[in-house]
Amino acid sequence: MRPAFQPLLLFIWHMCLLTTVTADNVCNRPPEENGSELSGGQLFFEPGTEVTLSCSQGYSSAGGSRKITCKKNGEWTMRELKCNPKRCPVPESLQNGKADFDGIVYKTVITYSCLEGYILDGATQSQCLHTGQWSQPTPECRPVVCDLPVIPPYAKIVYDRQFSGDTVEFGFGGTYECLPPMALFGEKRATCTADGTWSEPPECKLVTCPVPIVIDNGFLSFAELREHGYKEKVKYGCNNPYVLDGTVEVECEKTGSWSRIPECKAPCKVNIERGRIFYKGLKKWIEDFKPNQVLHSESVTVYCLDEKRSCGYPVSMQCRDGQMPIPACYNEPSYTKYKFNSGSLPSEIKQCN
């Protein structure tokens, strides 16, 4: 009977031991907290038991006692060990891209992305490991590549800079030009876009302008009376003493019309018989103003009288295509006053301030 009784005793002893270990006054295994932990696999500790903590993987000690003790109430004494997460190196800057991250300590993650027109070559994320190193190297943002563009008929492209090979990178471009007398319709700029294709090319179309007109009192300089192509130019001139109002040279535009055709404007006459005028920096009696002619857009000054203040003042008038009205304030003197008392005229007396 003794052999059969021994297993029963062992079972009773084991149950008593388990009851003692799991009683309310024992301490449970201290959890991992703030980067510190307990080594080993023991789950329960009796009051008075002292254990030694260590910093968890990925953390470094920043001082403080490593010891904690199980108290009679089943709680551990306060932890004093300070453990800080390990730091990884400052990540390299990502050219033509960006790196989003909140820190560079253990477990933090960097997310990489590229700007439009660039493709990520490498990992999209990298984590700071317990070793203090990043899990992945910094990737690169490589530019999108385009084949050379198709040149439209009758056109050429002037690239921004010289290059070699038969491909170019995102952002590279040039300017389209049409061969004369063709005109360009569409986008003049050519660019390698973010999707690896070129921007829409323009068209070169034939544009002609009608035979240039002959203007009144003017002429065409060395111009053939024929239709002209886009960008071709002709020159105009005026017969003396007419003055050209507009540009001497006009150009055939892409609308099929000429730029603004100039006009020949007529000169003017100073329509007073007696008085003094001011013209091109000189004062002159009207009878000495020969020839009595003012060209289009030129100005002449006559003098009016301020009766209240008994002083004279100048008033300017401008020639506009043969018309130059005399100011209403001008009073032409009598023959007698003009001949024998000219010093009393508005042009000769004290001038108003």
Can you describe this structure?
One of its GO terms (molecular function) is heparin binding. It comes from Hemibagrus wyckioides. Its main location: secreted. This protein is mostly beta strands and 353 residues long. Strand 27 and strand 28 (282-285) form a beta hairpin. It folds into five domains: 23-85, Ribbon (Complement Module, domain 1), CATH 2.10.70; 97-143, Complement Module, domain 1, CATH 2.10.70.10; 151-202, Complement Module, domain 1 (Ribbon), CATH 2.10.70.10; 208-265, Complement Module, domain 1; 276-344, Complement Module, domain 1. It has helices at residues 2-21, 335-340, and strands at 27-28, 36-38, 44-45, 50-55, 59-61, 67-69, 83-85, 97-100, 109-114, 118-121, 125-127, 140-143, 145-147, 155-159, 167-169, 173-178, 182-185, 189-191, 203-206, 208-209, 218-221, 228-229, 233-238, 243-245, 249-251, 263-265, 276-279, 282-285, 299-306, 311-318. The strands form 13 sheets. Strands 2-4-6 form a three-stranded antiparallel β-sheet, with no helix packed on it. A three-stranded antiparallel β-sheet has the order 8-9-11, with no helix packed on it. It has a three-stranded antiparallel β-sheet with strand order 14-16-18, with no helix packed on it. The protein has two helices and 30 strands.
